[in-house]
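Lab notebook, entry 401. We have the chain sequence and a SMILES string for flavin-adenine dinucleotide, and the next step in the workflow is to get a structural model of the bound complex before anyone spends time on docking refinements. Request logged below.

Task: model protein plus flavin-adenine dinucleotide, output structure tokens.
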Amino acid sequence: MSDLETYRQKAAAWLESVAPRYNAKVRYGLSETENLALGRAYLKERFDAGFAGINWPVEFGGQGLGHLEKVAFEAEELKHGMPTVFFGISLGMPVPVLMKFCQDHAFVRERVLKALKGEEIWCQLFSEPAAGSDLAGLRLRAEQDGNGWKLNGQKLWTSWAHYADYGVIVARTDPTVQKHKGLTYFWVNMKAPGVTVRPVRLAAGDSHVNEVFFDDVRVEDTQRMSPVGGGFGVAMATLMIERYVATDSGGFGPKLDHFVEVARKAVINGKPAIEDGRIRQQLARNYAMRSGLESITARAMLMMQAGMEPGPEGSLNKLVSVRSRQKLSELAIDLMGTAGLTFDEHASHSDDWAMSWISAPTGRIAGGADEMLLNTIAEKILGLPQDYRPDKGVAFNQIPA
Ligand SMILES: Cc1cc2nc3c(=O)[nH]c(=O)nc-3n(C[C@H](O)[C@H](O)[C@H](O)COP(=O)(O)OP(=O)(O)OC[C@H]3O[C@@H](n4cnc5c(N)ncnc54)[C@H](O)[C@@H]3O)c2cc1C
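Result returned:
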């Protein structure tokens, strides 16, 4: 048996032993704050068992293992639907970026340990009302204030900001240069005076995203994580990590076996829907797509394990998985007839077709909208010319708002 398989079995056995106290079944119907409390308890237990920060450096409290061990553990964890959603962004992007770019190692170690144990949560403050796909067009200002900085402006769509203790933020420090050259990257204390968090309600009924206002929020220069004007590069590094998180997160929705069950029960023209050619074609198509993406993911994992940077193929994963999830969920709802119209707000998008369908549009925007991913594929994989950029070479304050 390979070392990796031994590790996977050890992880599976541990998860089996704790899952009855945390899994999706026991949490059904709990409020968000009750779920969060269970999530924090689970993270602490996961830390104590040695399954936290699996591929992170030992010096920061990680396990110092490889990416494959991390993925093996997460695949087993996903099977139980553990309460990890509140910490996905925190541990997925801001904390790894902090380890890479923050120079104050004692501070980083303390934050990493608390984040791994679920005691602290970090959010990612990038998008604004007029800056999402066009991140470099952001307007929140950071102005020099003595030996520190003062932040003024608004962020939007910040996941879990209402629970966050800290966040990473990109701000405009110089509007007189080209838009991506005048940005600087900081970490901020979300409890600092002048930070206001307001929830935004999404179509599926939840409000895990927020608008966040900054009114004269003071940050020290030691909170700067990029050279002044060099924030765009660190933001890009953060989003590269985000792509690999999305790669691992299984955006396909319910398993194909669930669809087969629905198609066996439904009837088309007096026969089980599973015998209908169009339904069989959809099943085969989805199976082929999932298998193709699994191969791409497996290759990316092996490259990361070997210390290489996987290519832009990661863009394919989210694009294909969420788009096809929306279509297949719609078909499943059609096959279920009136039963398909019942909406259970406590259901998960990975095992309920209605929830999977209604939450798919946000999935097609979050972490890179479809059209932006198509642009990446066109430019980086197919080698097509760059998208038209009328603001190229123009100082930010000369671009019409
Ligand atoms: C559930 C959810 C959670 C999120 N969490 C966070 C978070 O924690 N932190 C954070 O910073 N942000 C977060 N976001 C924001 C997310 O990153 C942005 O929504 C996304 O980047 C799109 O930006 P936008 O909403 O401004 O849409 P826009 O960029 O305005 O796009 C609108 C439409 O225009 C299209 N479009 C834009 N530019 C082009 C182009 N050049 N060519 C062709 N089509 C184009 C887009 O594809 C899209 O269809 C979250 C979003 C969602 C939905």
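Notes for the group: Confidence is low (pLDDT under 50) at residues 245-249. Worth checking against the assay data. The beta strands are 122-125, 141-145, 148-156, 166-172, 183-189, 195-200, 209-220, 267-268, 271-272.
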